[in-house]
Structure formats: C-alpha cells, structure tokens
Amino acid sequence: MFFRGPIRSMNYARFLTAVSAARRPSPIRILTELQQRSPPSLISLAGGAPNPNTFPFQSATIKVKGGEALVLDEPLMKRALQYSGSYGIPELLSWMKDLQKSLHNPPTAGFSPERGQMEMCVTTGSQEGLCKIFEMLVSSGDNVLLDAPTYSGTLAALQPLGCNLINVPSDHHGMIPADLRKILGQWDPAEAQKPGSSIPRVLYTIPNGGNPTGASMTHERKQEVYELARKYDFLIIEDDPYYFLQFQKPWAPTFLSMDVDGRVLRTDSFSKILSSGLRIGFVTGPKPLVERVVLHIQASTMHTSTFTQLMVSQLLHNWGPGGFLKHIDGVIDFYRSQRNSMLSSADKWLKDVAEWHPPMAGMFLWIKLKGIKDTQQLIMERALEKEVLLVPGGVFNINSSDPCPYVRAAFSLSTPQQIDEAFRRLADLIKEAM
C-alpha cells in the first residue's frame, strides 16, 4: 500500500485525555502478569486471589457442533475460574495476533514498540474496547468525526463525554471522502499538532455492514480517508464487528492493512460468529495506545472472563486457522441466505412504498419509507398494533429527535416466512399512513 508523503513519527501523548494520561499501571495487576509467566516452582505470597479449591465447579465438557468436545479438566478449570492478566490469556492473544497478521498484513507488525508496533488485548466484547478507547481519547469539547447514522451504542458512549460530534455524510458505500475533505477544509492542517488546536483528533467508522445502514466502505474510499487522516494527523477507530460477515470475496482491505503510520485502532468481535454471550472482543492498534487501553481495563473489569477466554482458545486451537475460516464460511452462507430472503420479501411487498440498497455485509437492511417524514411514532406505536417491530431510524442519529424516514430491519433471527409476513404487515402500515 503506497501513500504519499513521509512516514510520520506519531506523538501518541497528544491524543490522550487528562484521565487517560493520569492512569498508572496497577501494581497488583503487574504481579498477576508476572506470576502467570513464572515457573511452577515460584512461591507467591503476593496475590490476593481466592483459592480455587473453595469453588464449587470441578470440570466441564462442552459439546461442539461437528467437532471434538472441549474438555476443561480439574487443573484447567481451576485456571479458568481464577483471575488472569489484563491483556488476555497468552494462548488466545497469540492465536489472534497470527490471525490479524494473516488477514490484514498490517505494516505496523514490523514497527518498533515506540513507533507504534501492532499490539492486541482482549476485551469484554468490542463494546468495552470502544468505551475504553473513547475514555482514552475523547475529552469534553473535542471535535469527533463519525459517519451518521451510526451505531446507537457508540452514541451512548460518546455523547455523555461532552464532545462535539461532527456528522460526515455517507451513502450505501459508506463515508463519503469528498464530504470529509470539505468538513476538514475549515482547518489548517499545519495547526494539527499545536496545543489547543480544534482539529478533530479522532474519526470513528463502521466500515463493513454498518449498523444500522448495512453500508460497506469501498477500498478506494478507505484510501482517501486514510490520506486525510495523515494530512490532518487524526486517529481512525475502525469498529468492524461485521468484518467476518462480508457476503463477497475477496474481503475488503481494512484500515489496519494500510496503516503505515500507526494511527488505526481496530475493534473486532466474536459476538456475531461464535457467541454474543461469551463477550469476547479485541482491540488491535499501536502498542503505546493498546497499553493505555489495558490501564483502563485494569481500573474497571480487570480482565475478560478467564473461563470464556479458555473456552474460545481451546476451540480455535482445535480448529486451526483453516477450521476457523471454514466455520466463518458457514456463518456467511447463513446470513447471505437470510439477506436474500429479506430482499425478496422487500421486493414483493415494499417496492411501491419504500426504497433500499442491498447490504454487502452484516445483518441489517436500511429502508427509507416513501411519504413518511418520521418513523418514530409509526414504529413505536402503530407498528405494535400490527404486531411487527423494527427500529425507527432516528435513534441512530446524533440528534435522535430529528425527523427520519428510515427504519432498520434485522434479518438475523427471523425465519424467511416470518420476514415475509413482517414486510406484508409493514406495507399495510405504510399505506395506511401515507
């Protein structure tokens, strides 16, 4: 990947909030990490961990579809029920680092730690990773760029921080670089690193199968956005929980794959492909920033569940990279079929009263209702009477009270027959309201 201009030496300290800059490593957490890397002969009187012999759980056997069972014998169960390091258990991190390198070939993998070498940590779902990143980077009064509409959980995390959210227009191909360039044009890029500069230091985007729009950003647009990030020296938060739900191959190159400076923080999730209840996510990015994310984890959750980490790690090691990707192919086939069923039913019932673009990833169809200025009352009141439920589009806007003619329909859970009936009911509802 070639980008114009010299490779930057990133000043990561200037991106940190006062809260994040004040974080210091937990001495107890450091001792926990040291103990886990030490030989069994070490006698530790340092930790305040409970004795696992007092726990009621002894062992577990977990049946896996079409594969060998996962067995947590008594010694492994004792480990699974105990505290672990804040980065994540070593064998899971090692597996995931290898996967990230094979999928994305990030330039930062060969960097020095100080320059922004690729690092990873495990989080309790990607949502925790996002919240920690926002706490680390976003202060009251900061300007933050994001494509809107966007994931309501992101808005819930950002808005209480008192930042100024700047909507970058998007379409069914994701964020529009020309509009981003126009927004940034009000600032002089030479001012970016000066104290007190109001130039945005963070851009947030969901590049594949965006929630709620289903939009996927093209490779060309990502390149243009990354060039602007270099010019104005801001960080890119690449929130990609639907990366493994892309319906066409080859999968789109990621911001991480083109990160020649070390300015991309990427969040991944196993929620859509292994289990949402296990709460396993990952943050990948420059080592100085991931180290800081870990300090925020130390002060809150301490670490993601050791039990779920060990369970997932055993599964991945049993599968190997080929088995993992084979599982992904099956998941993609399912959601592609679900999407096609929803598109077929939409064409059958809604073509005269709504419009949409087929999503290339994810699990959502973003539908614009004709002749309806705002879907809030229609969905939250009248749709319930018709026994059909969607999400009114306004909840995904920075200002949720702004009129919005869109609704979000999810094709993940319902059967094709249920989807068809739901759209029949929705069509009747729209016709009555027109």
Automatic annotation (TrEMBL):
InterPro entries: Aminotransferase_I/II_large, Class-I_PLP-dep_aminotransf, PyrdxlP-dep_Trfase, PyrdxlP-dep_Trfase_major, PyrdxlP-dep_Trfase_small. GO terms for biological process: alpha-amino acid metabolic process. Pathway: Amino-acid degradation; L-lysine degradation via saccharopine pathway; glutaryl-CoA from L-lysine: step 4/6. Keywords: Aminotransferase, Pyridoxal phosphate, Transferase. It comes from the Eukaryota. Coiled coil: none annotated. GO terms for cellular component: mitochondrial matrix. Its cofactor is pyridoxal 5'-phosphate. SUPFAM superfamilies: PLP-dependent transferases. GO terms for molecular function: 2-aminoadipate transaminase activity; glycine:2-oxoglutarate aminotransferase activity; kynurenine-glyoxylate transaminase activity; kynurenine-oxoglutarate transaminase activity; methionine-glyoxylate transaminase activity; pyridoxal phosphate binding. Residues 117-426 form the Aminotransferase class I/classII large domain. Its EC number is 2.6.1.39, 2.6.1.4, 2.6.1.63, 2.6.1.7. It catalyses: 2-oxoadipate + L-kynurenine = L-2-aminoadipate + kynurenate + H2O; 2-oxobutanoate + L-kynurenine = (2S)-2-aminobutanoate + kynurenate + H2O; L-kynurenine + glyoxylate = kynurenate + glycine + H2O; 2-oxopentanoate + L-kynurenine = L-2-aminopentanoate + kynurenate + H2O. Pfam families: Aminotran_1_2. Transaminase with broad substrate specificity. Has transaminase activity towards aminoadipate, kynurenine, methionine and glutamate. Shows activity also towards tryptophan, aspartate and hydroxykynurenine. Accepts a variety of oxo-acids as amino-group acceptors, with a preference for 2-oxoglutarate, 2-oxocaproic acid, phenylpyruvate and alpha-oxo-gamma-methiol butyric acid. Can also use glyoxylate as amino-group acceptor (in vitro). Belongs to the class-I pyridoxal-phosphate-dependent aminotransferase family. This is Kynurenine/alpha-aminoadipate aminotransferase, mitochondrial. It comes from Carassius auratus (Goldfish). The gene is LOC113096639.
